[in-house]
Amino acid sequence: MLKIRPAQQYDKDDVLKFCVNTFDWGDYIDQVWNSWYSDPNGRLIIAEYKSEEYTKQLNAGRQSSTIVAVSHVHLCPNRKMIWLEGIRIRSDYRRRHVATELIKKMLEYGIEQDAKESAAIVSANNVPSQILMQRNGFVKISKWNYFSGHKTQNGLSTNGYKVRVANLGDINGIFKYLKSSEIFKLSGESYVDMWRWYPLDPTTLHHLITNKIVLVAENVDSSIIGVVIVNKDDGEQFQILYLDANANQLSVLKHLVIYAINLDYLKIKEHERLQIFSPQVPFVHSVMKYIGINQCEEFLLYKRKI
Ligand SMILES: CC(C)(COP(=O)(O)OP(=O)(O)OC[C@H]1O[C@@H](n2cnc3c(N)ncnc32)[C@H](O)[C@@H]1OP(=O)(O)O)[C@@H](O)C(=O)NCCC(=O)NCCS
User: Fold this and answer.
1) 171 plus 95 within the same structural domain
2) For a pocket test of ligand 1, which of 72, 94, 125, 302 has the largest count of ligand atoms closer than 8 A to its C-beta?
3) Which of 148, 222, 257, 302: CA 20 to 30 A from 295?
4) What CATH number has the domain bearing residue 209?
5) How far apart (Å, rounded) are the C-alpha atoms in residues 238 and 73?
6) Could you read off the pLDDT of 89-110 as tens digits, one per residue?
7) How many Å from the N-terminal Cα to the C-terminal Cα in the chain?
8) Same domain, yes or no, for 71 and 193?
9) 129 lies in a domain?
């Protein structure tokens, strides 16, 4: 008998035992367990198998069961969307619809919270997960590139436009630009924060601009021609969370990236690690190559109404 229930702190060791070499690079559940477990806006859930033997034992006053899966659901700051993450099924319990049951439970959490939409990210290499998402009614919304590398010295002179930190007076100009941007459409109108993809709407943009993490490129006539959102995460790792400039303006995109990397208040040191998320557009690769970043992975953003 399969039971899905909220995780307890004492489940941690059992769960971490099967979350070790999930992917060829390992796994990260051990690093996020504590924050997911105590997430006030989410739920960490586990699946456990109880055999018939278990029921008999229970009647005899003894309990034992096998924990076979884990996942986390998080209510996004706009409270309209839930984010599904960390689905892990013990390898010997796969293809028994355990992940499907976890997804159902996470969607139920979304309904309880009155959220309207659910979303998740899947690596382009992870075909089983892609099928799982599709079988559960999720639709592929956008493709993303994740670049990683290290800061190197690079300069570029501007040509008739300037790059600067955005202020609140730019909101309308930025949205006018985004609404006509092919890249914004391709992004599913989203940006990334701590490996979660959120809708990039005016309220969110207001918040990001207040935090001084939105940069714009503007033309001589002051119209916006490119937008970048940056961050340094909790581990002080520099990230670009959104990257957008007109395809005909490759140099604008280069400038935005180089300006971001060299922003004084982000204090990014030479050779520090950079992580760059970008909606998948071919010309971004040449910009990354220019700044010395060649490592790239692809991710797919899935969404489903709830
Ligand atoms: C991907 C994963 C979560 C699937 O879990 P699962 O419990 O086996 O999935 P389910 O049994 O609910 O599968 C539902 C459907 O998805 C599809 N599916 C799942 N795994 C599949 C696989 N390996 N190959 C092809 N299709 C697969 C099937 O259509 C399946 O239905 P069916 O068995 O009736 O044909 C599991 O393999 C896993 O833990 N993988 C490693 C971690 C991981 O990739 N997590 C997701 C990160 S986004």
Assistant:
1) no
2) 94
3) 302
4) 3.40.630.30
5) 25
6) 999 999 999 999 999 999 999 9
7) 27
8) no
9) no
**Ligand 1 atom with least separation from CA of 89:** 39
pLDDT tens column, 217-264: 999 899 999 999 998 665 667 899 999 997 667 888 888 998 888 887
Structure tokens at 53: 């033997």
Q: Taken in order 242, 123, 7, 138, is the CA torsion positive or negative?
A: positive
Q: How far apart, in whole angstroms, are the C-alpha atoms of residue 64 and residue 127?
A: 34
β-pair partners for 54: none
**What is the value of pTM for the model shown?**
0.92
Q: Which of 299, 288, 220, 224 is nearest to 260 (CA)?
A: 288
**Domain range enclosing 167:** 147-305
Hey, what amino acid is at 132?
L
Candidate of 105, 129, 130, 303 to mutate for ligand 1, largest count of ligand atoms within 8 Å of Cβ: 129
Beta strand residue intervals within the chain, DSSP E: 2-6, 42-49, 66-75, 81-89, 117-123, 139-150, 161-165, 190-193, 196-199, 214-219, 224-232, 238-245, 273-279, 295-305
